[in-house]
Amino acid sequence: MMLFAVFICFLAIQRLSEVRIAKRNERVLKAKGAVEAGQDHYFWMVTMHVSFFLFLIGEVLFLNGSPPKWWIIPFVLFLIAQVIRFWALISLGVYWNTKIILLPGANVVAKGPYRFIRHPNYLVVSIELIAIPLIFGAYITAVLFTLLNILMLRVRIAAEEKALMQLTDYEQSHGKKQRFFPIQ
């Protein structure tokens, strides 16, 4: 149980740090004339992510979730996702955000993992929402939030790509890339 608490604390610190980075990036971009898109679903996305942690903690503590013998597989997936997360964040720099904040006329970032796929950060989140619960045997959380994430990403990606096409060179720079996987 101590390992679970340490893991949750790590994730909480990571997410709170990302919120801080996102707020800073939002201020910088909006000062340059950036606009926000997708506000109508942002509350629901945040609610889903906060609920993920509550369900995960609840399932592990109250339904006695425990790591399966094969916990190393989802743990390795989680570690790979962290590398991609950091790579995406560094590659986007000031353009990285939890919101859809776009600078009209900007060139879309096409370096780092964005050379290969359009949405590496959403791939990371998708991996995490299934891998993290599986590490601790929280199967209900894994299934429920994988399904909720699919629904959320259908809305989120549509809103983001629409805004990117309207305000940036997205179609020219990313139009032929796969959304999540570099293989066709």
UniProtKB/TrEMBL annotation:
Gene3D superfamilies: 1.20.120.1630. The chain crosses the membrane at residues 41-63, 70-96, 130-152. It is found in: Membrane. GO terms for molecular function: methyltransferase activity. InterPro entries: ICMT_MeTrfase, Metal_cation-efflux_comp. It is a multi-pass membrane protein. Keywords: Membrane, Methyltransferase, Transferase, Transmembrane, Transmembrane helix. Pfam families: ICMT (PF04140). One of its GO terms (biological process) is methylation. This is Methyltransferase. It comes from Fictibacillus barbaricus.
